[in-house]
Fold this protein.
Amino acid sequence: MSRALVVERPGAHRLIERDEPEPGPGEVLVRVAAAGICMSDRELYDGHRAEGYVRYPLIPGHEWSGTVEAVGPGVDPALVGRRTVAEGFRACGMCERCRCGETSLCSGGYAETGFTEPGAFADHLTVPARLLHLLGDDADLRAAALLEPAAVVAAAVRAGRPRPGERIAVVGAGTLGLLAVQLLAASSPAELTVVDPRGARGEQALGFGASRSVEPAGARELNGRFDLVVETAGAPPTAASACLLARRGGRVVLTGMFAAGAVGIDPVHLSVSQLEVRSVFGAPSSAWCEAVRAFGLGLLDPSPLITHELPLERFADAVALVGGGDPKTGKVLLRL
């Protein structure tokens, strides 16, 4: 038997026992080791995720790691026993965007593990083998559960094209922001400033390679300073403030998930300053490759971000921690 956490509808969940899933053609069966909970999961549980980006009833869980236990027809049996993570987007691989390598922009329709397809808040899940990214035999599966947000950050860094000696700012020191600091520090910036109102998060960023941490009020004095600004907070004012931090002709990458009511970017400032603004939603296969490689090389270590680890039976407590407002809460994991 295999356990799974099912969200029947917003605010209603139950832990079930079911037969162990069987992998179909082209699929693998993964024994889940750990699964992260993020604000998207909280939104899913509260019923605030945008229509078309969730399908109830659902087994959530899009940030995870595990070990391949079985393979379906047409899949290499040598995968059994390998530690792994996998891309969440179920890209079609056939449309123009996929053929151009932009798998996170697949035009075949939105499908993602943990939102429209069964996810990893379960002992087992099945995923297409083509989405796997294999890890080393000694990989820390607890830390590897954060490779999904790390892949999003890798996509943002790729979009920002950091160059050695540049002045770089990261807006937000949550999970995405602190992972971004680690990856950006590897590009040898002349300055790496983190903007966040939480002093403890700023201190943590310094330990990850940031050269300075400032609160938003103090950051206004730095407007126009940075070659590259990576926004990760998704707070109402942060898209606009990130653009103000960039120098004329600078680059801004938006990765935060903004809710209705966010402050818009001033089009006059955007035009006159000739800013290059990119946004990131999810991660293409290429960004996954870079995140997994950085993890394997030790350039990326998500483990210090984890503050809580709870069993699947305590899902209600775990999801309440996420977005609960406690500044001491970092990444919350379900351990399977």
About this structure: The first strand starts at residue 2 and ends at 9. The domain at 2-146+302-335 is CATH 3.90.180.10 (Quinone Oxidoreductase; Chain A, domain 1). The mean pLDDT is 96.
